[in-house]
Amino acid sequence: MANAVNWFELPVNNMERAIEFYNNILGINLSKASNGPMEMAMFAADHENYGACGALVKADGYNPADSGSIVYLNGGEDLSDPLNRVESAGGKVVMPKTSIGENGFIAHFIDSEGNRVALHSMK
Predict the structure, then answer these.
(1) Among residues 31, 34, 77, which one has the least CA distance to residue 22?
(2) Residue 1, in any domain of the structure
(3) What positions does the domain VOC occupy (predicted)?
(4) Chain CA centroid to CA 10, Å
């Protein structure tokens, strides 16, 4: 059975700043794309396996928010690594690494654009 979520979009005001933020904390390279009037930067996707993929999006009507739905990004082996880079990259940790029992650990942060985003890892 497939996962219920297959796509997410994080609104941004400054695409270059947001790309730098996520590249820095996650150790990745977001790839730029466009879709008509939308400016986008795509998170890498593994199309051979189930799971969500998504993008940073700058467009009319897309407004960063620190309330509402929360996207949980893969924190890798141990979410402490990317979480420790959040503040130096221009974000703010708002919930430290927290155990959720047998389901691993989570943490929340505000990204460079003002979105509340989260990390998950098993360690």
Answers:
(1) 31
(2) no
(3) 4-122
(4) 7
Our CA dihedral for 21, 23, 26, 31, rounded to 10 degrees, sits at 130
The answer as to whether 115 is a domain residue is yes
pLDDT digits (tens, 9 = 90+) for 26-36: 999 998 998 88
CB-based contact 97:83 (threshold 8 Å): yes
Amino acid at the residue 40: M
The pLDDT tens digits for 9-62 are 999 999 999 999 999 999 999 989 988 889 999 998 776 766 678 999 999 999
CATH number at residue 112: 3.10.180.10
The residue range of the domain holding 68 is 7-121
In a domain, 2, yes or no: no
Domain count, the chain: 1
Strands of the chain, DSSP E = 7-11, 31-35, 38-42, 53-58, 71-74, 92-99, 105-110, 116-121
Residue 86 lies in a domain: yes
Collapsed DSSP state (helix, strand, coil) of residue 92: strand
Q: What is the pTM of this model?
A: 0.93
